[in-house]
Specification:
Distance between the termini: 81 Å
Largest sheet: 5 strands, mixed
Order of helices and strands: EHHEEEEHHHHEEEEEHHEEHHEEHHHHHH
Shape: elongated
Helix content: 40-55%
Radius of gyration: 35 Å
Number of helices: 16
């Protein structure tokens, strides 16, 4: 039986080599195309897995499973793929060029040295073949609804008609990390900086800078990104490039938070493998690609320069769909934070005043040792004040009906075993 390739799928080189060494293992690309593979009386309906950076391929028929039931290594499979992508007008054009080369080479051996291309080849036919090749390649694209050659032989009139398929928008959201430079203060006496650092802004504070961040994103965009955003640089991502037309980074207010967003224009539907690879690419763009470049550009505000990161290495970072963002629990607004919590935070905060800073900076080793010892002793006393009063605890537990002296001793022994004595 013959084999019919229902889909061509590009794999990372490492994945391809792993499948080539062990063809009977599961892979998400096979799972995503599982329904396309089957056998009928005429043919095996297969998928071809292509090495993204080499020339070879694997012909796969999974028979409804997540791993290959039938597989064959196909050397130089990319040449088959390129032939599959090549239209009939392109093949005819190739043959015309080849025939013309042979004709000119033959005449060169008769002493002829100069040629006019128009005398050797039909330029009108070449023009027609080029137009037809363009139209046929356009018609093969997933994002094009129809394309046709409308040439009627009139100069300066449109000769190609095309209609694009409607695109759908798919958004992925991520938390932002925004840091603001703290303006340096200067010691008037010693003429040196007193303090300079950055502070990470809360979700509530980030919202105040939405317009500045949007302006900065627009200013960071290059001319090449006008229509397709960062997708203009990702056409080599064969795993999803045919279905993703554009990717534009931005920010949006969602509830009481400002979130980063990658707005993707999609043609058709992504299968599970294409979807996962798009997510992987967006994560890379947030951390190491577009996002890494953007976070190094300061954004000027009235309260100091801020730096916006679309990625955070804290471990809590993730990309979320619109549905996942809407389903996420709301973060309480700043107005709803309990007043006593704010007062407690203020009471536990020690302000490093300028005079205190100058005093610490002028200390020698012995003075610094003395200060640190006092701080430690104060902390130790604070812990002692919060220690458990065993006798009072024993007395209260003993008041519970049904607990005798023996049982009370056992309970206190268990409590003491869980208390780590202070050193």
């Amino acid at each position: 039986k013959r084999c019919e390739v229902e889909k061509w799928v590009f794999l990372p080189h490492s994945d391809f080599e792993r499948l080539k060494a062990n063809p009977y293992q599961e892979h998400e690309a096979i799972t995503a195309a599982r329904d396309l593979m089957h056998e009928d009386k005429n043919a095996y309906h297969c998928i071809m897995l292509l090495d993204e950076y080499c020339e070879d391929g694997l012909l796969i028929e999974a028979e409804g499973f997540d791993y290959p039931r039938l597989s064959m290594f196909v050397p130089d499979a990319k040449s088959i793929y390129e032939r599959y992508q090549t239209s009939e007008p392109e093949l005819k054009l190739h043959d015309m060029i080849k025939d013309t080369v042979e004709k000119i080479s033959e005449l060169a051996h008769t002493g002829k040295t100069d040629f006019t291309s128009a005398d050797m080849i039909d330029m009108d036919e070449i023009e027609s073949l080029v137009k037809n090749a363009i139209v046929q390649q356009l018609a093969q694209r997933d994002d094009i609804k129809m394309a046709e050659n409308t040439d009627i032989g009139v100069d300066f009139q449109p000769d190609i008609h095309i209609e694009a398929k409607e695109l759908t928008e798919l958004k992925f959201y991520c938390p932002l990390k925004v840091q603001r430079e703290i303006q340096p203060s200067f010691d008037e006496d010693e003429e040196e900086e007193f303090f300079e650092d950055t502070e990470e802004l809360s979700d509530f504070k980030i919202l105040e800078y939405q317009s500045e961040i949007l302006d900065a994103i627009e200013a960071y965009q290059c001319d090449d990104e006008e229509n397709r955003g960062i997708m203009a640089y990702l056409d080599d991502r064969k795993r999803f490039a045919d279905k993703v037309y554009s990717i534009f980074p931005s920010v949006e207010k969602v509830g009481d938070r400002l979130l980063g967003v990658f707005a993707c224009q999609i043609c058709g539907e992504l299968d599970s493998y294409e979807y996962d690879k798009l997510l992987h690419e967006l994560s890379g763009q947030a951390s190491d690609g577009w996002g890494e470049g953007f976070e190094q550009h300061e954004i000027q505000t009235s309260e100091g320069d801020i730096y916006v990161s679309f990625y955070d290495t804290s471990g809590a970072w993730e990309l979320m769909t619109e549905e996942e963002v809407k389903a996420a629990p709301e973060i309480p607004s700043e107005d709803n934070i309990r007043e006593e919590d704010i007062m407690e935070k203020e009471q536990n905060t020690v302000e490093l005043t300028r005079s205190m800073y100058k005093e610490i900076k002028s200390m020698n080793r012995d003075q610094m040792q003395h200060v640190l010892t006092n701080i430690y002793d104060q902390g130790a006393k604070s812990v002692e004040h919060g220690a458990i009063e065993y006798e009072k605890l024993r007395e209260e537990i003993g008041k519970i009906n049904g607990i005798g002296e023996k049982r009370l001793d056992e309970i206190m022994a268990i409590i003491e075993s869980f208390i780590v004595p202070a050193e």
